Amino acid sequence: MHQLSRPEGRIAYDLYEGDGDGTLVVCVPGMFDHRASFRFVGRALAAAGYRVAVMDLRGHGDSDITFTAHDSRAASSDAIALAEELGGERVIMVGNSMGAAAVTIAAIDRPDLVAGIALLGPFLRQPSLGLPTRAMMRILLTRPWAPWALTFWYDRLHVGRTPEGHDEQKERVLRMLRPADRFRAIAATINASNETVDSTDGMIAEAVVIMGEGDPDWKDPGAEARWVSSVVGGRLVMVPDCGHYAQAQRPDVVAPVLVDLIERAVADA
């Protein structure tokens, strides 16, 4: 584990490095997830010769709980700072769920830095939640059972193929959610008011949208993926036997798509 110093605390990240000094790839998970969800993609891209940095969100994993902002724009600023810290040029950014909004914002704000983005199970806008869903979220976020309830929900979002080491990943998530002070930071992330990203004026990055065919976060995952693809001007890859976490559930699909994205972004340099 490595740590990136930021004005209000430190961001934890893992670094996967292959031979040489290939293109830097920065990966950003979603809320109440741990950076280890990118473990398979990190290893695969490192084996292909790229450098991969996978960060925790603020208050998540081993990142500090001292931050005051926990929204997608804050995560975007951390991803940019991490890319700069590691000396990246024409960086590829990969975001899952809320992390997809973070890397899209980074590509809009820093076209000089971000050459390509991959959006996995992306939330660029907040879904309209009905009364039953809002009630369920209130229950999920109520202690003392909240850590177990959220871990159960995390498990349920893995519709389709079960990743290798999934029980260990669930234990990481539960261990992360148990301390009251860390849970408050994660709850602040869940409750943050994230901006809708429906315009990418100024963005020049290559883009790809990767959506699990069974992603339960959306009533119609394909329709949401097509909308996101239209916003970022990227190609769309629908992944069978997959829910919300394509990076963990189907790295056999995701890693080759990312290699193709990197090659296209570098070719456009």
Mind explaining what this structure looks like?
The structure is a single chain. This protein has an eight-stranded mixed β-sheet, with helices on both faces. The protein has 269 residues and is of the alpha/beta class. α1 links the parallel β3 and β4. α1 packs across α10 and α2 crosses α3. The chain has a single domain, classed as Alpha/Beta hydrolase fold, catalytic domain (Rossmann fold), CATH 3.40.50.1820. The chain is built from ten helices and eight strands.
Summarize the structure.
The protein is built from ten helices and eight strands. The chain has 269 residues and is of the alpha/beta class.
Notable characteristics:
8 strands; globular; alpha/beta; 269 residues; 42% helix
Q: Which bin fits the share of residues in helices?
A: 40-55%
Main beta sheet, described?
Answer: 8 strands, mixed
* Strands ordered across the widest β-sheet: 1-2-4-3-5-6-7-8
SSE topology string = EEEHEHEHEHHHHEHEHH
Taking all residues together, what is the mean pLDDT? 94
Estimated structural class: alpha/beta
CATH architecture: 3-Layer(aba) Sandwich
Strand tally: 8
Count up the domains.
1
C-alpha end-to-end distance: 31 Å
- CATH H level: which superfamily? Alpha/Beta hydrolase fold, catalytic domain
Which spans of ≥5 residues are poorly predicted at pLDDT below 50?
none
| Number of helical segments with 4 or more residues | 10
Please identify the top-level CATH class: Alpha Beta
Beta-strand fraction estimate: 15-25%
CATH topology tier name? Rossmann fold
Radius of gyration (CA) equals: 17 Å
Q: What overall form do the CA principal axes indicate?
A: globular
